């Protein structure tokens, strides 16, 4: 009989708590307290940009919505729409980029809120805070240039009540927030080069781009920038800020070796002198995003699966998603090394015999800015270059206008490309037009052209006037993805 | 000590087995057993009283047995009164049994308790499944298709081991619509794939449909409960049953893809030219260097490959089953052994399974007994699913060098390469055990405690080789070891009190508690960069890069259970149940939930006016019930803000990052979750049920009818959040759904003779489902269109095909209705296109002529010109069963039908190398073929989802036909029964649907391109 009672007791005892502690994930109530934790949260904010939802549209949009490339046949409406400037609010590239930008904003805002007061080293806290502000500005700046009025996000969403009700902010207030955030970031950040992270110079570089966008848009009458008080004020601010990058620091410098800029084969080159801020990807990554297939997007589909560039650099085959447009290539000066050496017209075998030349159609010369000779299968360390020293140097020139400083800046870029100095004595307007043109050569295939044409009100005059493209809509702003309105009416 | 116990247990077991084999009798008795009507009664148990010695009568009712000369024979048979006859020196007996009507009253399990079938107050269906085990099935659910009213089971896939869609009385939730499955009192989770239990071990299944029945399962009862009962030992001689069958599978219909290479080339080029592209079948290399022959070369006989033939095979699967059971008054045992193969029709896509079950019931004292049950199953799966059968038939398997052919660097679809080189093997191990302690404290009070434990585990090895798989190419060979383990512990303890007061008030009280704990652990080892891949996933340390990940989830449920049954004069029955559930999944603001129910029924056949006035009525019982049940389909910790992690390359290496967003993958893109909702709680369903049970003419006619209304609110929704929130989805409580319907079952014994029986049954279910609300505007946003529809999108996002989701939850509509444009026809001329408001390519002849349904003069088939265009929910489902036996022959048939549900035929007009439904592509619009319903072929057409893709999915399927023959075994002493049978599954499907098969998922989207299988089985069943 006793055994029976023991048996009953044993059955009854199996009972358990209804509030089990989470054992496999961290909750926001028990995190962000130490410097290491905050550091991992900062990196988590950057990491948003390595999702394919971010990386793909980052280049899909501006490289096809310009004279640089057209998309390979069969890539689908979501990319074709940019080539023909007939974009609707269901476009998946825009939707993905929009979503990911706000995921990035939320992560940046989380960092900003969690580092306002820290119990660890105050300088470290400031640095994290500055990086959060930089990223918040980056996302707002990308969004405002793509879509115009969008919701402004300056606090983290960590409660259900904060999920709905975001309303579009005016373009002016978005710019005001960006400027204020970047100025704070510049105060908080040290100069410290770490590949894939932003420092004081990155914040200054970004701010100079913000100012030049406002200045040139106002000056050229680009749509919806009427609110900018005065073009000259912002050209001056752009010049001052760019000057901080060009003249007041020595960590990031002009790379005299044109080819070396785009070399990712060694850690030194990967983190080369020009690269102020970029999205780091490495061939040893486990999933796409951690590693990159960007090279294959430019290498034509009929290129051999293994071959060598004329200078002996090894490469793999490609998908040929972005097909270079020949009229764009013809716009380069015949002596321009950026056409002759950074665009590939033939591929060789190991002994130097020609294996491939463009055969027309979708088989065209292609950019070698994204080649990794150390590729493993499809995996490379190629990546988008977000802020490059030469980009800021040209912004400095554009902001300066045809001054000695301005000429010196643009001529450094031209001379490296094997070109003679820019014709002296240009008017301010002509000089600035020449800088925009120079940017199209220097920054070709890096995702800048669309934004340069938009801010200088040149979409129609260049794309339609020079290149004969038809523009149906979205010349200056793309429609905000329908999903936002559908879920947040 | 424990070991010793095990040992003595085994010895004890062997002894009792031995006892049943031993022959120590002195005299032989023999005879026949007949019914009062003069029929022989086969299968009657003849047992020497107080011994395990006994036999069963054979087909003619004859028996012979050796017994002690002072023995008493106990003769018992289902449906007859048991008699005891002392032999008193006689050796021949002609025994006549009289029918026992009360025994016809089956015992029905209603959760923690059993009642007589006639005393059931709620909506409960019972089905005996013993015969059904002749049908080869992965799980018992498959055997229930079309056999229980109110239970609708869909079988959307023929993949080995694939689960089923199981629903009771419609969908009362947006997220979880699957009933709870309980095996011998052990709640095991969602129904649909009870693969651990051998169907041949299952003797009956009860389905609890209304709240009165299901409320005892509280927060998991909202979708109904399926109670499965497995075989237990019986007092009497050992019975050994052996069955073996072999099943041959092939396709029920033809593939509708390109078989003729000329069609492939002509139609592909036509689609390209119409898109402004150059033709590709011109006898030259494409950009990837792959040669495409010209159409004339193809006509002259360019070599092709029959990939359907390569990928698919006809299979022959085997199923062997042994059941042994028997016992004495004190000890009863059962043992089951099953081995089967379920190889798929895809080459090398194999599954085999062994199941062993063992149970023992032991009386410890007069009042205390212990039962235990163990079920062990092991499966081995080699998965080669998803390989391309629709590959371009002009592509060879091997290239000139004898390597697997690749059309370009990124062609990872050569089915032969994947079959030969890719590895995907899983071993599963499942253990289910329960122990029951029963103590009859006195004649009124009983205590029962049940302790259940289950363990499910699997180990999966995968290897993706370099060159021929995408992942392997990216990682230079990628290998995975995946571990999965779940454990469930459920302990119940409860008292039942039984007493009849003043001879007319019968009262049964049940009270107790139940406690449940469940955990899942997973871990993954990944390695890549193999210099030599020949070991596959055998040695992960050979890879250059390694990565691990793991996860752990636990949930707990604590409950109090109670039930009161009251019967007045054996006529009026009242039942009240209540269950209090506390769940770890619920938010801190809503930890406990109470689920009450009540029911009343009236056995009118006990009233004099029926007993005297209409004595042919065996049963007339109206029932009424009302109650509240819940649904706790919440993932653990969804109430908290959860942080996720990622990896970022900085300072020369990857580092782990931590912050907002739990990321999951959707194709190459991501979905982000992680925002907590502390208010999360269970869904609540209020169920009203009114029913009537009617039997007449000595149970020759059985009829049952139920009307129900289920109203579910606080629906759990994976709410899509606006992108600006930084999250994609959040689980919330929002919305209300109503299900209302009737179900009817009718069975009639047309002929009921000794050697000739015919009976027929009909089951009819009609469910009307309606979304009442989509939640408060503060917590979820609802779209509104020009037609006043208020809705929210759900289901699969058809990004590439339609650039949209196509199902919506819309207020006042059934769930999952289709939302899209309306097609009026095909544009015949550019003028017509322009006149109707189309522009550009969309205005060309041969394009879809979409309707301007909002009449604003602008055609926007992707936006404003969309409305609700179809309903995937069937109007009603019905099934017909037919059973016949004539002498030694048995014939049964099951027809199963679904009527009025719409199906979106996604592959109706898809282009590409395989050509979805080529028969449609051949009817394309062209200037020579204007009067067709199909548009021209144009590869880059921007297609909007429209009613053009929707078809009526009604069907009537010959689900199963079985023909059995009982071999005459009269002369063979050792064999009691020997039967050979043939069973055919899915023999034919009557439907107007033009796709592959209209039986698809709950959203009604048919993306299937592989025809359904027809299965033919030949088997034997021998009982010793």
From TrEMBL, chain A:
Keywords: Cell outer membrane, Membrane, Signal
Gene3D superfamilies assigned: 1.25.40.390
The UniProt record lists the keyword Transferase: no
Main location as per UniProt: membrane
Xref: Pfam families: SusD-like_3, SusD_RagB
Domain SusD-like N-terminal as annotated: residue spans: 88-211
Subcellular location: Cell outer membrane
Matches recorded under InterPro entries: SusD-like_N (IPR033985), SusD_RagB_dom (IPR012944), TPR-like_helical_dom_sf (IPR011990)
RagB/SusD domain sequence ranges: 364-469
Superkingdom of the organism of origin: Bacteria
Family affiliation: Belongs to the SusD family.
Protein name: RagB/SusD family nutrient uptake outer membrane protein
Species name: Flavivirga amylovorans
UniProtKB/TrEMBL annotation, chain B:
Residue span, TonB-dependent receptor plug domain: 117-225
Main location, first listed in the record: membrane
Membrane disposition: Multi-pass membrane protein
Top-rank taxon: Bacteria
Compartment(s): Cell outer membrane
Keywords annotated in UniProt: Cell outer membrane, Membrane, Receptor, Signal, TonB box, Transmembrane, Transmembrane beta strand, Transport
Signal peptide boundaries: 1-24
PROSITE patterns linked: TONB_DEPENDENT_REC_3
TonB-dependent receptor-like beta-barrel domain boundaries: 365-987
NCBIfam families associated with the record: OMP_RagA_SusC (TIGR04056), SusC_RagA_signa (TIGR04057)
Name by which UniProt lists this protein: TonB-dependent receptor
Organism from which the protein derives: Flavivirga amylovorans
């Amino acid at each position: 009989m006793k055994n029976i009672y023991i048996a009953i007791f044993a059955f009854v005892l199996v009972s358990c708590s209804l509030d089990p502690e989470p054992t496999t994930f961290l909750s926001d109530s028990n995190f962000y307290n130490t410097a290491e934790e905050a550091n991992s949260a900062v990196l988590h904010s950057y990491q948003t940009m390595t999702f394919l939802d971010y990386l793909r549209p980052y280049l899909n949009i501006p490289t096809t919505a310009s004279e640089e490339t057209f998309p390979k046949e069969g890539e689908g409406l979501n990319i074709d729409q940019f080539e023909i400037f007939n974009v609707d609010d269901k476009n998946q590239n825009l939707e993905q980029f929009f979503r990911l930008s706000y995921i990035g904003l939320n992560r940046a805002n989380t960092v900003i809120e969690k580092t306002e007061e820290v119990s660890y080293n105050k300088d470290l806290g400031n640095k994290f805070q500055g990086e959060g502000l930089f990223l918040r500005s980056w996302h707002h700046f990308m969004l405002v240039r793509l879509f115009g009025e969008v919701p402004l996000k300056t606090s983290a969403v960590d409660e259900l009540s904060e999920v709905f009700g975001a309303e579009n902010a005016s373009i002016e207030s978005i710019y005001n927030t960006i400027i204020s955030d970047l100025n704070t970031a510049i105060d908080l950040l040290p100069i410290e080069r770490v590949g894939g992270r932003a420092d004081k110079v990155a914040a200054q570089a970004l701010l100079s781009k913000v100012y030049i966008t406002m200045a040139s848009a106002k000056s050229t009458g680009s749509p919806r920038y009427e609110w900018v008080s005065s073009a000259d004020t912002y050209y001056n601010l752009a010049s001052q800020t760019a000057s901080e990058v060009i003249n007041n620091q020595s960590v990031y410098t002009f790379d005299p070796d044109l080819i070396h800029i785009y070399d990712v084969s060694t850690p030194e080159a990967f983190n080369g002198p020009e690269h102020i801020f970029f999205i780091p990807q490495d061939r040893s990554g486990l999933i796409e995003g951690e590693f990159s297939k960007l090279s294959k997007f430019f290498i034509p589909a009929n290129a051999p699966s293994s071959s060598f560039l004329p200078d002996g650099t090894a490469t793999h085959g490609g998908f040929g998603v972005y097909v270079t447009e020949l009229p764009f290539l013809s716009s380069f000066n015949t002596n321009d090394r950026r056409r002759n050496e950074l665009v590939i017209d033939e591929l060789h075998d190991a002994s130097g015999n020609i294996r491939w030349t463009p055969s027309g159609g979708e088989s065209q010369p292609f950019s070698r800015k994204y080649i990794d000779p150390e590729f493993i299968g499809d995996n490379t360390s190629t990546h988008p270059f977000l802020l490059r020293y030469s980009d800021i140097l040209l912004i400095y020139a554009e902001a300066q206008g045809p001054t000695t400083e301005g000429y010196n800046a643009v001529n450094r870029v031209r001379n490296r490309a094997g070109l003679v100095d820019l014709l002296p004595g240009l008017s301010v307007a002509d000089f600035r037009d020449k800088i925009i043109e120079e940017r199209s050569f220097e920054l070709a295939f890096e995702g800048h052209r669309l934004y340069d044409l938009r801010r200088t009100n040149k979409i129609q005059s260049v794309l339609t006037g020079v290149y004969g493209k038809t523009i149906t809509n979205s010349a200056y702003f793309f429609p905000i993805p329908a999903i936002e309105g559908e879920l947040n009416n | 000590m424990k070991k010793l116990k095990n040992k003595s247990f085994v010895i004890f077991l062997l002894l009792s087995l031995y006892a049943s084999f031993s022959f120590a009798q002195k005299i032989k008795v023999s005879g026949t057993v007949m019914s009062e009507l003069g029929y022989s009664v086969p299968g009657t148990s003849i047992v020497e009283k107080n011994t395990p010695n006994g036999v069963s009568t054979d087909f003619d009712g004859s028996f012979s047995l050796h017994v002690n000369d002072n023995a008493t024979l106990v003769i018992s048979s289902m449906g007859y009164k048991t008699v005891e006859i002392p032999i008193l020196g006689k050796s021949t007996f002609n025994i006549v049994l009289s029918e026992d009507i009360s025994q016809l009253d089956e015992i029905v399990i209603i959760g923690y308790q059993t009642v007589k079938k006639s005393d059931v107050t709620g909506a409960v269906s019972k089905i005996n499944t013993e015969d059904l085990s002749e049908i080869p099935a992965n799980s018992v659910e498959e055997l229930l298709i079309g056999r229980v009213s109110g239970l609708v089971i869909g079988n959307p896939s023929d993949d080995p081991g694939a689960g089923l869609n199981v629903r009771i009385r419609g969908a009362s939730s947006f997220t979880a619509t699957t009933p709870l499955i309980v095996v011998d009192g052990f709640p095991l989770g969602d129904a649909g794939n009870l693969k651990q239990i051998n169907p041949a071990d299952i003797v009956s299944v009860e389905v609890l449909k209304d709240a009165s029945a299901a409320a005892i399962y509280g927060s998991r009862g909202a979708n109904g409960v399926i109670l499965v009962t497995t075989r237990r030992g019986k007092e009497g001689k050992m019975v050994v049953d052996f069955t073996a069958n072999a099943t041959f599978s092939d396709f029920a219909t033809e593939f509708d893809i390109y078989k003729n290479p000329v069609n492939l080339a002509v139609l592909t080029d036509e689609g390209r030219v119409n898109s402004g592209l150059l033709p590709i079948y011109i006898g030259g290399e494409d950009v990837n260097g792959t040669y495409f022959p010209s159409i004339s070369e193809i006509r002259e006989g360019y070599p092709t490959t029959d990939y359907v033939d390569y990928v698919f095979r006809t299979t022959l699967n085997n199923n062997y089953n042994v059941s042994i059971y028997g016992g004495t008054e004190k000890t009863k045992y059962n043992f089951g052994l099953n081995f089967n193969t379920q190889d798929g029709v895809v080459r090398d896509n194999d599954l085999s399974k062994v199941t062993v079950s063992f149970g023992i019931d032991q009386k410890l004292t007069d009042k205390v007994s212990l039962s235990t049950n163990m079920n062990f199953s092991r499966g081995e799966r080699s998965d080669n699913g998803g390989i391309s059968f629709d590959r371009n038939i002009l592509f060879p398997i091997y290239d000139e060098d004898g390597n697997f052919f690749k059309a370009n660097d990124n062609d990872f679809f050569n089915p032969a390469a994947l079959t030969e080189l890719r590895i995907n093997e899983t071993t599963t191990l499942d253990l289910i055990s329960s122990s029951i302690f029963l103590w009859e404290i006195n004649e009124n009070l009983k205590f029962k405690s049940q302790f259940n434990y289950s363990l499910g585990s699997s180990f999966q090895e995968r290897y993706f080789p370099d060159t021929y798989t995408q992942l392997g190419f990216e990682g230079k060979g990628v290998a995975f070891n995946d571990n999965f383990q779940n454990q469930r512990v459920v302990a119940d303890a409860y008292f039942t009190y039984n007493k009849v007061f003043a001879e007319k008030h019968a009262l049964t009280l049940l009270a107790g508690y139940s406690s449940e704990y469940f955990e899942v652990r997973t871990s993954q080892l990944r390695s890549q960069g193999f210099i030599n891949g020949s070991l596959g996933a055998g040695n992960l340390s050979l890879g250059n890069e390694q990565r691990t990940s793991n996860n752990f989830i636990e949930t707990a449920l604590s409950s109090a259970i109670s039930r009161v049954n009251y019967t007045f004069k054996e006529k009026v029955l009242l039942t009240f149940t209540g269950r209090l559930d506390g769940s770890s999944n619920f938010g801190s603001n809503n930890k406990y939930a109470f689920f009450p129910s009540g029911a009343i029924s009236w056995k009118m056949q006990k009233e004099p006016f029926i007993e005297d006035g209409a004595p042919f009525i065996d049963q007339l019982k109206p029932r009424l019930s009302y109650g509240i049940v819940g649904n706790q389909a919440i993932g653990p910790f969804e109430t908290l803000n959860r942080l996720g992690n990622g990896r970022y390359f900085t300072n020369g290496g990857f580092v782990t990052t931590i912050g907002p967003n739990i990321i999951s993958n959707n194709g190459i893109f991501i979905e982000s979750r992680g925002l907590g909702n502390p208010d999360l709680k269970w869904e609540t369903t209020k169920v009203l049920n009114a029913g009537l049970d009617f039997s007449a003419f000595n149970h020759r006619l059985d009829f049952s009818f139920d009307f129900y209304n289920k109203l579910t609110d606080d629906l759990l929704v994976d709410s899509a959040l606006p992108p600006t929130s930084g999250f994609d989805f959040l689980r919330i409580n929002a919305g209300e759904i109503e299900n209302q319907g009737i179900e009817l079952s009718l069975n009639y014994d047309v002929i009921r003779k000794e050697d000739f029986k015919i009976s027929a049954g009909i089951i009819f279910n009609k469910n009307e489902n309606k979304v009442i609300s989509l939640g408060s505007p503060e917590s979820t946003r609802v779209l509104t269109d020009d037609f006043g529809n208020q809705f929210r999108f759900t289901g699969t996002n058809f990004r590439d095909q339609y650039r949209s989701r196509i199902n919506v939850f819309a207020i006042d509509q059934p769930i999952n209705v289709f939302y899209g444009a309306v097609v009026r026809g095909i544009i015949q001329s550019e003028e017509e296109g322009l006149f109707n408001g189309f522009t550009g390519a969309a205005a060309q002849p041969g394009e879809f002529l979409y309707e301007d349904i909002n009449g604003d003069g602008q055609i926007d088939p992707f936006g404003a010109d969309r409305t609700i265009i179809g309903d995937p929910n069937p109007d009603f489902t019905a099934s017909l069963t037919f059973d016949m036996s004539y002498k030694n022959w048995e014939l049964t048939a099951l027809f199963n039908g679904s009527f009025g549900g719409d199906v979106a035929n996604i592959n109706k007009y898809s282009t590409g190398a395989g050509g979805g439904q080529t028969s449609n592509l051949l009817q394309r619009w062209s200037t020579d073929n204007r009067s067709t319903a199909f548009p021209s072929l144009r590869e880059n057409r921007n297609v909007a989802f429209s009613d053009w893709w929707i078809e009526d999915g009604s069907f009537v399927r010959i689900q199963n036909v079985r023909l059995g023959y009982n071999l005459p075994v009269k002369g063979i002493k050792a064999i009691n029964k020997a039967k050979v049978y043939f069973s055919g599954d899915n023999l034919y499907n009557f439907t107007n649907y033009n796709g592959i098969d209209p039986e698809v998922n709950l959203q009604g989207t048919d993306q299937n391109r592989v025809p359904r299988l027809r299965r033919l089985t030949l088997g034997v069943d021998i009982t010793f």
